[in-house]
Design goal:
By secondary structure, the chain is of the alpha+beta class. It is 47% helix and 11% strand. The strands form 2 sheets. The chain has a 4-stranded mixed β-sheet with strand order 4-5-6-7. A hairpin with a 5-residue loop joins strand 1 and strand 2. Helix 10 runs antiparallel to helix 13 and helix 16 crosses helix 17. The longest helix has 14 residues. The protein starts with a strand and ends in a 5-residue tail after the last helix.
Length: 311
């Protein structure tokens, strides 16, 4: 399910158009940083296109706004709306929605048990760490150990199965060497974050992502969810490495990966991640855990943002 929205504040002033979103809660996340959002003001949401009862969704939006006052301002400061939501859920389900000083301390076993059994446990930990980074009484090292424990990579990520989804079967070949690489990156493996490829070099400077074309390994240092997963080493298929070698590049691999993908495949990198997740889950080819790790994102993003139940 996807929606298009226009959002107005309580004075009926037009604020912004949000497009597209997979749920009402995503609208709130995008709206959070606006003036009305920061004040948690009542808002009017105009649905340009929706396939669900409008009254039900507006009611859901209002409920989310009302629960925003669970957390004190000093915790919400510097956090994104999704990060606030993670912490709010802990308070809601572990402490019945009542925040007290120290309730998020890693020594509280009830919180740890909840995090370990939650599919979004890793991102919850990242949110707490960000909120309490400067608090010396919080044993954040314990949280980081738990995060490593619950984010162990799945035993197998069947990248080769990508070839079985309709979009990939319909990709047309190209004679251009760079275009061939772009196509292979979406035909022979899961689409990883565009920012990873934008920061990938063929020489190792110890800071950026490094693709070793001798070992077919991509050392990923710079990417959005590094806080949750740490540095990663990805195996790049030999078919892709062969095409990259033909480019005869010596340093930076791509100048603008997003523009290259849009030009070659006709879809944006984020839209493609939606397509792959939806088709691979709907056809029972991969689990949300395999997709999250293989695409350097969280299971929450896979299920709540990228996954579109009705294609």
């Amino acid at each position: 399910m996807q929606y298009l929205f226009k959002i107005y504040n309580k004075d009926n002033d037009y604020i912004e158009r949000v497009s597209p979103c997979s749920s009402a809660s995503r609208v709130l996340y995008k709206f959070k940083e606006t003036k009305a959002g920061k004040a948690f003001a009542p808002v009017k949401i105009e649905f340009i296109r929706a396939e669900e009862d409008i009254t039900k969704i507006i009611s859901k939006c209002s409920q989310v706004f009302r629960t925003n006052d669970i957390l004190p301002e000093y915790i919400k400061q510097g956090l994104t709306a999704p990060q606030c939501s993670h912490i709010r859920n802990i308070v809601k389900f572990v402490y019945s929605g009542v925040y007290t000083e120290g309730c998020l301390n890693p020594s509280n076993q009830a919180m740890i048990d909840y995090i370990k059994t939650n599919k979004n446990g890793s991102t919850m930990i990242s949110s707490i760490i960000k909120a309490f980074t400067n608090e010396t009484e919080y044993n954040l090292s314990k949280l980081r150990e738990i995060q490593k424990e619950i984010t162990k990579p799945p035993q197998d990520i069947p990248h080769q199965e990508v070839k079985n989804i309709p979009f990939v079967r319909n990709i047309k070949d190209s004679k251009d060497p760079l275009d061939k690489v772009i196509i292979a990156l979406y035909r022979d493996m899961l689409p990883i974050r565009s920012g990873i490829w934008d920061n990938t070099y063929l020489t190792d400077d110890g800071n950026n992502n490094f693709l070793n074309i001798k070992t077919n390994k991509l050392l990923v240092r710079k990417y959005k969810t590094r806080e949750a997963y740490g540095e990663q080493i990805l195996d790049i298929p030999e078919s892709i490495i062969k095409l990259i070698k033909k480019l005869k590049k010596k340093n930076k691999l791509f100048n603008n990966f997003k523009e290259d993908v849009l030009r070659v495949l006709g879809k944006g990198t984020n839209e493609l991640r939606h397509v792959y997740v939806t088709e691979l889950i709907n056809n029972n080819i991969m689990t949300d855990y395999q997709l999250a790790y293989g695409m350097q994102t969280s299971r929450e993003m896979v299920n709540d943002v990228y996954y579109i139940k009705e294609c």
